Structure formats: structure tokens, C-alpha cells
């Protein structure tokens, strides 16, 4: 059987780009997301283009029972996951801590931290049985440096950074690779989600410079995953040329 990649948050952006790229390398895919129509369309397109096998799972990673039910009902062949890409994540709002919306805080913590944990707990145990596998965690430059009004989003991505380091240690005896990639500005639906559909405000985030695109991140993840067996890329920060840090920019 071909290798298998499980990608969370596959309906858009980096997750979708990873799905397309891994399918082009003949990986069979388990794709998760909240939007059934988008998942099914992506699966249909990739099957037609690359002839790979794909299972789609409509679920919200915040919902532990949904995650457990969906993953545990997979057949044994599909549980032999070679690569887990913990991509599902989001930001909500950009307010100072004293004005923050607590519902937004819950959404970010439940998605970016707890959702990643729910999926990883199950899939890592499958990998332990085989003493093989690679987990790639999607962090952010916001998990390396705090910026104004980033507060809770930054906290969740700092948590991803810490969890990635902890996973690397905990899974070391089992020969499982663990990596994190921390992108700077990537033009996807990220800012539209953060600003709750305000497309004009979202566009301003990427004005005056050339941001990264989802394909840039997918190709870098593929590089990490395709290294020889003895090589593990633990941690990687990637930004557009115009972005030197979370707060320093060269905008035209």
C-alpha cells in the first residue's frame, strides 16, 4: 500500500496545498475539515488527477468525541499513517487583552492546542505500534515572538512550539520524527477568518509586500518529510523576504 498522510484542516490554504502536493507524490490521504462539500470536491479532484485513494472525515478538531469516533472507525490499513500534518488552526480577533472576546479565546485554545492534542494522541499511538512515522506541527512566528494585540493567539502558538519539543522527546524511543514549521505572513483565508469575513481589512495585512503563499509552506513541509531516515528537522521558521520578525517589515 502507498504511504498515507493525514492532514487536518485540509479544506483551504496550507492544508489544501499539502493535500495536493502529497497526492502528487502518490500518498494516499486522510483529509479532515469542517466543510464537507469542500472536502469532497478536493478529494474528487485529487483522485482524478493523481489516482490516489482518499478518505474524507468531516469533523471539528475541537470536538474530542468527533475526533475519536472518526479516527477510530478507520480500517486498520488506514491507521498505518506515515505522516500527520497538524494543520488545523486559526486566529480570532486582534484586540488588546482587556478588550478580548472570551468566546474567541476559547475557539483559539480549543482549536490550536486541544484539537492538535486530540488528533496527535490517537495517531501517535498508531505510529508507536509501527515504530515509524512523522508528525509535522503547524506553528507560527507568533509562537516565537509576541506582537501587539496578539496575546491569546500568540499564547496558543507558543503552546504548539512547546508541545512540538515535548513530542520530540516523548516519541524519541519509538523512532518517530517530529517537526514544527513556523510561518510568518502567508496569504490564505487566515486574515479573513481573524477579521470574521472583513475582506478589505484582511487585504491590508498583505499590502505593500509579497507574502508567502500556501504552496511555499507545503513545499517546505515536503522537504522536511522527504529527508533521509536519519535526518529530523526539529524546528523551522519561514517568512517572506519583507518580514524579518513578527514586527519588523519592509513594506513598499
TrEMBL record:
Pfam families: adh_short. PROSITE patterns: ADH_SHORT (PS00061). InterPro entries: NAD(P)-bd_dom_sf, Sc_DH/Rdtase_CS, SDR_fam. Keywords: Oxidoreductase. GO terms for molecular function: oxidoreductase activity, acting on the CH-OH group of donors, NAD or NADP as acceptor. PANTHER family: ALCOHOL DEHYDROGENASE. Belongs to the short-chain dehydrogenases/reductases (SDR) family. This is Oxidoreductase, short chain dehydrogenase/reductase family. It comes from Arcticibacter svalbardensis MN12-7.
Amino acid at each position: 500500500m502507498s504511504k498515507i498522510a493525514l492532514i487536518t484542516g485540509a479544506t483551504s490554504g496550507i492544508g489544501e496545498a499539502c493535500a495536493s502536493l502529497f497526492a502528487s507524490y502518490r500518498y494516499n490521504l486522510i483529509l479532515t475539515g469542517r466543510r464537507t462539500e469542500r472536502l469532497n470536491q478536493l478529494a474528487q479532484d485529487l483522485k482524478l488527477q493523481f489516482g490516489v485513494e482518499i478518505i474524507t472525515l468531516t469533523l471539528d478538531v475541537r470536538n474530542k468525541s468527533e475526533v475519536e469516533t472518526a479516527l477510530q472507525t478507520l480500517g486498520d490499513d488506514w491507521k498505518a499513517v506515515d505522516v500527520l500534518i497538524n494543520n488545523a488552526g486559526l486566529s480570532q480577533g486582534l484586540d488588546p487583552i482587556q478588550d478580548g472576546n472570551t468566546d474567541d479565546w476559547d475557539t483559539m485554545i480549543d482549536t490550536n492546542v486541544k484539537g492538535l492534542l486530540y488528533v496527535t494522541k490517537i495517531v501517535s499511538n498508531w505510529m508507536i505500534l509501527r515504530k515509524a512515522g512523522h508528525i509535522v506541527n503547524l506553528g507560527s512566528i507568533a509562537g516565537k515572538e509576541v506582537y501587539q494585540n496578539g496575546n491569546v493567539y500568540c499564547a496558543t502558538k507558543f503552546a504548539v512550539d512547546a508541545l512540538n519539543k515535548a513530542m520530540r522527546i516523548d516519541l524519541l524511543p519509538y523512532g518517530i520524527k517530529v517537526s514544527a514549521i513556523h510561518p510568518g505572513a502567508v496569504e490564505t483565508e487566515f486574515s479573513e477568518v481573524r477579521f470574521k469575513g472583513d475582506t478589505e481589512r484582511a487585504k491590508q495585512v498583505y499590502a505593500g509586500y509579497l507574502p508567502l503563499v500556501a504552496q511555499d509552506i507545503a513545499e517546505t513541509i515536503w522537504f522536511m518529510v522527504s529527508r533521509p531516515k536519519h535526518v529530523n528537522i526539529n524546528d523551522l521558521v519561514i517568512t517572506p523576504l519583507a518580514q524579518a520578525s513578527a514586527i519588523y517589515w519592509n513594506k513598499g
